[in-house]
Amino acid sequence: MIYLDNHATTPCDPRVVAAMLPWFTERFGNAGSVEHAPGRAAAEAVEEARAQVARLIGAAASEIVFTSGATESNNLAIKGAARFAQSMGHGRRRIVTLATEHHAVLDCVADLAGEGLEPVILAVGRDGLLDPGVLSRALEVPTLLVSIMAVNNEIGVTQDLPELGALVKAAGAAFHVDAAQAAGRMPLDVGAIGADLVSLSGHKMYGPKGIGALFVRRRPRMRLAPLFSGGGQERGLRPGTLPVPLIVAMGEAARLAFAEGTAETARLRLQTARLWERLSSQRPGLMLNGHPVRRVAGNLNLTFPEVPASAILAAAPDLCLSTSSACTTGPEGEVGPSHVLTAIGLPAEAARRSLRIGLGRFTSDQDVEDAATALVAASQPHGSSAASPDKQRQRT
Q1: CB 19 within 8 A of CB 252
Q2: Is the CB of residue 236 less than 8 Å from the CB of residue 76?
Q3: What pTM, to 2 d.p., does this model score?
């Protein structure tokens, strides 16, 4: 089996697992129980992890709030900012985001319409990028908050956050960035992009599921209303007993990404280029979705000629990939086209012929070669099917 779905989730790095396991067993203290040694040890481990996550994005440790994942971070950022502003009688009600954002952002913004906020969904170009002029025109109306994803989770394009963030700040709005797909995959500095809020996910950076973080700027202070009530943990923004093992794991994942990210990115760019070269040379008519250069290392979103993506996956069962069309399911269970691909102008039929490929830390050069061979065979029209990677290795 060849795993090429690293945008959906990444496997836990064994070093992350090793760092996490002791906090489930002999080091089980509650980080809130600072009256005794086990509790203090847990609290110290949490603060070390907080500093590791902060360093990865150029923040201060005091600006990191741990959550259950990027979905919660997005909700806390957007709803928290909107509700606090409303409670203070803030006159701005407009919240701006992009048509290609993750549903955790789009649905969150839609929810706020029922609370009197004004959602504004901006279109992107055929390459998946936001035209700064489009944002400038939207910001001519006083705006409360703008939310823009750093790296698109389907097509992998990277928005020009420094330029867009400067426009947001000049307009006096708050700037939120969903960086779940960016942190650990590309350099990210909250100061350089002018972000007030940044959402992070542990399981997108070789950590465990169930842990994430939200950067909340302290100078100038970004104020949020919490989503829950409770014991006041995490500056009162995310109350609840801290999951120390998961937090330690996210800290270690961030440490590894900071130390090894540059070399990893270089390797992934070479592997991605090799895979694209193999596929495009052997499958005429293959189309790359999204900007050809402004994209994260390891991502290819491809529309194949003639053959539906579901048929390609069925013909290559040893490849773990995602169909971009699996993003939306209707009430009767029917699968609709990806909202990202339709937002960049693909017809629904073409979106159903599209696959998302996500290479990662544990993708080998041989995996790339075997995947290319399998995809070329599986995407042939008239029912051609691929041999398994094991059989392809035996043949070579």
Answers
A1: yes
A2: no
A3: 0.94
